[in-house]
Design a protein that fits this description.
Elements lengths: L19 E7 L6 H5 L9 E7 L16 E4 L4 H11 L4 E4 L4 E2 L4 H5 L10 E9 L5 H15 L9 E3 H6 L10 H9 L6 E10 L1 H6 L1 H16 L4 H13 L1
Parallel strand pairs: 1-2, 1-4, 2-3, 6-8
Antiparallel strand pairs: 4-7, 5-8, 6-7
């Protein structure tokens, strides 16, 4: 917490609530995107929803009509898409939401807790993972505990950050993989995260498709390589081969 940052005054919508921009990077998410965007939390009048499509070929962007305030096109790459959304966001808090992660009804009020104090500038939710494997509750519990202990969040946990802070640190690190970990490490030098115990529900499709044990091993291997200093570009290539194999 050694990089002190001054904060702008937060604004409110017509309901009197702090404005939140929801930035959703997507690519070929036709199966899930409408379900994610239709949750009541995103119908708040102090929320803007920005969908950033990274070259979908399944008509994802066509399904967003009426459910998002803006739909942008960007080159593929989650960090690149997140920054494109950040570039047009007008809310005081930016929530980065995956296209297979569903917010709870209280999400916006929970997020707005960081407006109550200058001491905390970012946060994340606890997560539940919906899927077939009996290991997924254990994976989720471990993910939540590890995040609370280390101050590092994953994108599945729906990270949210004050927009003025994001802009001052230069946005999301533009790397091919592990952008959520890299962003967490920058932000935790400014403040510890607000670790909400409210849970988002994310899809366990990658665990179901590739096997829970194999997916867990792959994710841990990627983290180990990243901590050891391997470049994100090389990590992305290895990750692609491991998933394909």
């Amino acid at each position: 917490m050694d990089d002190a940052v001054q904060h702008d005054t937060l604004t409110v919508g017509s309901s009197g609530a702090v404005r939140v921009s929801v930035v959703m990077p997507v690519r070929n998410e036709a199966e899930t995107i409408r379900q994610v965007l239709q949750v009541p939390a995103l119908r708040d009048d102090a929320v803007e929803v920005i969908v950033v499509d990274g070259g979908s070929t399944d008509g994802t962007a066509d399904l967003v009509g009426g459910l998002a305030h803006r739909v942008l096109a960007a080159l593929p790459g989650r960090a690149r898409q997140m920054n494109a959304g950040l570039g047009v966001a007008t809310g005081d808090i930016v929530l980065f939401l995956h296209a297979d992660t569903v917010l709870p009804p209280t999400a916006l009020n929970d997020i707005r807790q960081i407006a109550q104090s200058d001491a905390v500038v970012w946060g994340r939710f606890d997560v539940d993972i919906a899927g077939r494997s009996l290991l997924l509750p254990v994976v989720a519990a471990f993910m939540n505990a590890r995040s609370r202990l280390t101050g590092v969040a994953t994108g599945d946990q729906a990270m949210f950050v004050r927009r003025d802070v994001l802009e001052r640190i230069g946005g999301v690190p533009d790397i091919a993989i592990m952008e959520d970990v890299a962003l967490s490490k920058v932000l935790r030098r400014i403040s510890a995260p607000l670790c909400l115990r409210t849970r988002v529900r994310t899809s366990g499709r990658r665990w179901d498709a590739n096997g829970a044990v194999r997916t867990i091993a792959t994710m841990w291997l990627m983290r180990l390589f990243y901590v050891a200093g391997m470049s994100p570009d090389r990590l992305a290539r290895i990750y692609g081969r491991l998933r394909a194999g």
